[in-house]
Amino acid sequence: MKVLVTGAAGFIGMHVSQLLLARGDQVVGIDNLNDYYDPRLKQARLERLRGHAGFAFEKLDVADRPAMERLFAESGFDRVVHLAAQAGVRYSLQNPHAYIDSNVVGFMNVLEGCRHNRVQHLAYASSSSVYGGNTAMPFSEHHNIDHPVSLYAATKKANELMAHTYSHLYRLPTTGLRFFTVYGPWGRPDMALFLFTRAMLEGRPIQVFNHGRMVRDFTYIDDIAAGVVHVLDRAASADAGFDPARPDPARSNAPYRVFNIGNNEPVELMAFIEAIEHALGRQADKEFLPLQDGDVPATFADVSELAAWTGFKPGTPVREGVARFVAWYRDYHGV
């Protein structure tokens, strides 16, 4: 297949591209290489992909409508994995316009490209953040998601609504993937694991929000990438049993699906920190702080729908995944 991967220089984008290339697919990667975090890390990820004969890269912003129209018209993609986005809950409090430009306008351009160029299936990144103020655990695709608590979450819910509209109007198969706290080698520097590891190695205190009373369904990057590819290979289809009188958020009479991709085993933040301490062989100096605006105290993914649809379920233990990250971090930074 010929697959477009947007955000190919990103954390998840690089790993998904590697899996697709390893099985022989042709991958066209695009990324705007912005400076939300160190572009050198993005360039280093790209170097790992450029070693594959089947990989081509173009520096391009998904919010650039003429450039996206040209890309789709000229390239003839079979399938699309849309991962490009302005990430981060906390940054959305500082620069909200970046989220509308990238996550809403950019997604519109991807949908239009798929619609007009006979793309077989669009798989796109949503987020566990869409569950917002929900407190029913574990989070299920069947739950209502009408109460986002950050603009980032609101843009991701908007993506799901926009995708459903295109699935309904144009019969474009779309699948949204609600990622749960992704971590692992080549991860983003603004994520907790990267921040904690760097601070501990530099002898600085780590900032522990909500006074440590946080629970996250930490999901290892290899599981996330495998889940994306499994979903990409089975295009969304209409549910013949969908009842519009009692609509289920996880179902539709259009070729539309959404799935959680999480480890299905939430871990307390303090236990996560202990795993880092164990891997580094040193204790963390902790600075306990209140819960930040836009954040939620707990996440927990029900992945029964993903398992039923694809036969795949994440399962990398946190201690194992953290140890792999620390080994990568030490090697990458020479520490």
Write up what this structure looks like:
There is one protein chain. By secondary structure, the protein is α/β, with parallel strands linked by helices. It contains ten helices and 13 strands. The protein has helices spanning 11-22, 39-50, 65-75, 96-116, 151-170, 192-201, 221-232, 269-280, 304-310, 318-333; strands spanning 2-6, 26-31, 55-59, 79-82, 121-127, 174-179, 182-183, 206-208, 215-216, 219-220, 256-261, 267-268, 286-288. The radius of gyration is 19 Å and the shape is globular. 47% of the residues are buried.
Give the overall pLDDT as a whole number: 96
Overall spatial form: globular
Radius of gyration: 19 Å
How do the strands of the widest beta sheet line up side by side? Answer: 3-2-1-4-5-6-11
Beta strand count: 13
Note the total helix count.
10
Largest sheet, described in full? 7 strands, parallel
Give the helix proportion (percent range).
25-40%
Helix vs. strand class: alpha/beta
Estimate the strand proportion: 15-25%
Order of helices and strands: EHEHEHEHEHEEHEEEHEEHEHH
Cα separation of the termini: 40 Å
Task: Produce a short descriptive summary.
The chain has helices at 11-22, 39-50, 65-75, 96-116, 151-170, 192-201, 221-232, 269-280, 304-310, 318-333; strands spanning 2-6, 26-31, 55-59, 79-82, 121-127, 174-179, 182-183, 206-208, 215-216, 219-220, 256-261, 267-268, 286-288. With 335 residues, the chain is α/β, with parallel strands linked by helices.
